[in-house]
């Protein structure tokens, strides 16, 4: 029988000799010391709350794919905006679920000054003037095909779409929107919207560019929320960015800033932390991330099944955005997090 060979001896050097006396655990030993050297922090000032608006009164419909998130009529939306302001949330972002009989091939209802998104802006601003309102001018909630632009012969036409969303942006500004956030990814939209806002006396209305909106699988629950899930013909890869591309995201951002964007957004968020970090380092402008519906729903579903601690995962995911360089985060967790931070 072969004799077992003796194991090699442990290192003859002490830990202090190995590390040169540098013990990184020293500042992790207690809660107070961990707090003292924490590099990234999450505060209520980092939060933007996306909410979903529907016509009518007394409507509060939970979205099956997004537990704890609701479509709300204006009366409930105003109450929730008041709650957000009391919690210290700086801004809300409104998204409409438009009645199907108001949708068409071109999304023309977006040009109605009294559409649900503009009515919501006026109602919230009247009740809660201190909260910021961010509105999107993409056409997908208004089109019968679910695309973000005008569909002609199977093609999303760029320039005609830009004209329409530019006109819509002016209507949204006139209704009281503080920030226009175009998510459609059409070429030239930022410059066209900036020109139109300035020409109509809205020089103080800012533009948050969805500078890098990727063709992602994480948008599914949102499409249920705004009622486009069953409408979409084809996909959005001809205008959203390929999720394999990083250099292209930089070029998109550079172009939007050159056209007049005041701040930039990365969407989705958590799978694209590398993009957030790269853009922040490259451009050093206010940078935001959208923790999209799929990210939210994954945490909620795993938590509901007992697979993760949902609260801890929520906070960890949001802190990851801050670590990556975000100045703020659009998240459906906003009121829950704000309440925790306040408490």
TrEMBL record:
Which residues are responsible for catalysis?
213 (schiff-base intermediate with substrate), 267 (schiff-base intermediate with substrate)
Swiss-Prot/TrEMBL catalytic activity: 2 5-aminolevulinate = porphobilinogen + 2 H2O + H(+)
Q: Which InterPro entries match?
A: ALAD, ALAD_AS, Aldolase_TIM
* Pathway stated in the Swiss-Prot or TrEMBL entry: Porphyrin-containing compound metabolism; protoporphyrin-IX biosynthesis; coproporphyrinogen-III from 5-aminolevulinate: step 1/4
Relate the assembly described in the record.
Homooctamer.
Supply one GO molecular-function term.
porphobilinogen synthase activity
GO cellular component labels: cytosol
Q: Which organism is it from?
A: Oryzicola mucosus
The EC category is: lyase
The record's Pfam families line, in alphabetical order, gives: ALAD (PF00490)
Name assigned to this protein: Delta-aminolevulinic acid dehydratase
Assigned protein family: Belongs to the ALAD family.
Keyword Transport present in the record's keywords: the answer is: no
Q: What's a BP term from Gene Ontology annotated to this protein?
A: protoporphyrinogen IX biosynthetic process
Q: Which UniProt keywords apply?
A: Heme biosynthesis, Lyase, Magnesium, Metal-binding, Porphyrin biosynthesis
Q: Where along this sequence does the record place binding of Mg(2+)?
A: 252
Q: Which NCBIfam families match?
A: PRK09283.1
Q: What is its EC number?
A: 4.2.1.24
């Amino acid at each position: 029988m072969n004799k077992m060979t003796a194991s090699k001896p442990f290192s003859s050097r002490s830990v202090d000799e190995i590390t040169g006396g540098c013990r990184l655990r020293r500042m992790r030993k207690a809660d107070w010391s961990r707090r003292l050297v924490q590099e990234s922090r999450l505060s209520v000032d980092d939060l933007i709350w996306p909410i979903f608006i529907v016509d009518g009164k007394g409507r509060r419909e939970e979205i099956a794919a997004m537990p704890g998130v609701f479509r709300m009529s204006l009366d409930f939306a105003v109450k929730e905006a008041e709650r957000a302001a009391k919690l210290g949330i700086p801004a809300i972002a409104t998204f409409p679920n438009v009645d199907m009989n108001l949708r068409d091939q071109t999304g023309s209802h977006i040009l109605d000054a009294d559409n649900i998104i503009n009515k919501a802006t006026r109602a919230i601003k009247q009740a809660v003037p201190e909260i910021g309102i961010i509105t999107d001018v993409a056409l997908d909630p208004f089109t019968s095909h679910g695309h973000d632009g005008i569909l002609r012969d199977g093609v999303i036409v760029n320039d005609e779409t830009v004209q329409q969303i530019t006109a819509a942006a002016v209507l949204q500004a006139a209704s009281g929107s503080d920030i226009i956030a175009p998510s459609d990814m059409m070429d030239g939209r930022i410059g066209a919207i900036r020109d139109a806002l300035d020409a109509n006396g809205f020089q103080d209305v800012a533009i948050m560019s969805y500078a890098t909106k990727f063709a992602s699988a994480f948008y599914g629950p949102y499409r249920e929320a705004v009622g486009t899930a069953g409408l979409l013909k084809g996909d959005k890869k001809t205008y959203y960015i390929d999720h394999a591309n990083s250099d292209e995201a930089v070029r998109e951002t550079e172009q939007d800033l050159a056209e007049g964007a005041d701040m930039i957004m990365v969407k989705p968020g958590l799978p694209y932390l590398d993009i957030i970090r790269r853009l922040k380092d490259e451009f050093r402008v206010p940078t935001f991330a959208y923790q999209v519906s799929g990210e939210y729903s994954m945490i909620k579903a795993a938590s509901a099944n007992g697979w993760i601690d949902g609260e801890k995962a929520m906070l960890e995911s949001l802190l990851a955005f801050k670590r990556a360089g975000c100045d703020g985060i659009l998240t459906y967790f906003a009121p829950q997090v704000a309440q925790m931070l306040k408490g």
